[in-house]
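Tutorial sheet, problem 5. The two components below are modelled jointly, 565 residues in total.
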Amino acid sequence: MNRLRIQASHRWYLPLLALVLMVALPSLAQTGAAVPTAPLQVLAQAQGGSATLLVGSTTSTEQSGLFSYLLPLFVQASGIQVHVVAIGTGQALDLGRRGDVDVLCVHDRPAEDRFVAEGYATRRYDLMYNDFVLIGPRSDPAQVAGARDVLEALQRIKARQASFVSRGDRSGTYEAELRLWNLAGIDIRADHGPWYRDTGTGMGPALNIAAAMDAYILSDRGTWIAFRNRQSLAIVKEGDSRLRNDYGLLLVNPQRHPHVKAAAGQQFIDWLVSAAGQRAIANYKIQGEQLFFPDARP
Amino acid sequence: MRGDGKDTKADGVVSEDLQQKRTLIERICENAGMNDLGAAFIQAAHLLAGREPALLGVIVLSLRVSLSALLIASLIGAPCGALLAVCRFPGRRLLIVAFNAMMGLPPVVVGLLIYILLSRAGPLGTFGLLFTPAAMVMAQSVLIVPIIIALTRQVIANDWEEYAELLRSLGARWWQIIPTLLWEARQALLTVLLAGFGRAVAEVGAVMMVGGNIDGLTRVMTTTIALETSKGNLAFALALGTVLLVLVFLVNALAYLSRPHSAQHGI
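Model answer (structure tokens):
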């Protein structure tokens, strides 16, 4: 055994020490130098504190920067910390059904009404709206810009078999896209060719794909304004009343999920639909352009 | 990580000030006829010079989560790997193949598994661990335990062939043999740990799913890169990727320099 040990240097413990320090020190600092009894507990406290709210939100409200603008204002007004998980509307509603978030901010009216009907929330609150825009290459190969309305624009895209990128997830934008195809008299899920790309991605990644292949795509205006990798894409059709995009608020029903922070969640909703919250939403601009239009009813 | 309300504003990785700075850099690059790649390297240099302090929290969390996962995974994985190398028991070969195969576990699948476990509707839901750093540590630990086990077994099996006779002649039992072998192989095991760390820190699917990429709480380097890519900030995303590479390089350099035996090998 001695023969084996002889080669040992005294520096073997350095990486291990660095590792332990790296892991342990920040937790100590976080808990005010109290010795953590169980690491899981300490880490859970980061979220489990009574004044921390978990919000499941559509990607557009997070990626457009609205929440990073609103949340500090709400924290200042209430002292309640809000953590936002940004995810497609369909998935966000599922998080609510499982009780994994307290409040939902989503944009798919039929799905939201279903959520309330199933008893996962007691009511839906109007919050704000903006609109969807039809994006396409500036060259506009399907001559969508000359179309009467968005429905004719979609018909032209299909007739020309111009590339179209679809979200293909369960997001509010995808549901809106399906409704528009439907209104245009096209059963797009059954009747499409290789020009229609079902990408199964979020708004941003889908826009990246559309930019790379000069395709048409339906986007919410907020994400589009904040999107930086436009390449040759531009808005080709907008301003149709059927392109309205409503955002709603839901408080997960505490009778379904008793751990839901109902009081704090209600406070958050009340603030958002209050005059102060609505004013803050209206004030949020990117490059001088207002992204969301408050429409809560008192 | 987000303490009281005061520091919240500085928390977002993309504050307005930084956004402006970045736009400026991009404009300069554009004028100079540079593409996203050029812009990325200028931004990376900018980030590495510590000019975006908000990024520090993201970097520290990345390291904390992945090093915690590494610590847990090596405490479980190294002894298990050694046990598999030294002991003979029925089903051992099957276990070896299974752990070798699990080195290729898809992160999203692990993320989904941990999500279902930790979800309020799941078996561990009462602890409220979903969307916390703890959940991310769990997911990464599950991902890298098979790597540590499989690679440790390989390393220890080689040493065992060499030392089996000696250790047996000394009358050592398996609970003495395993620590001895692990100790002897510590240099090779360091590489095993680095492989595990690399996998953990580079992983995005699982931490995105169980961490939720919450700003200031569970946002790590890889999920920030994914987010910035989806915003179309390709150059900035690439710059963050460069920073991540530099970090991993530094961790590796630290490990390499503090290796045992480095003097003997003259490196």
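Marking note: The longest strand of chain A covers residues 121-137. Full credit if you identified this.
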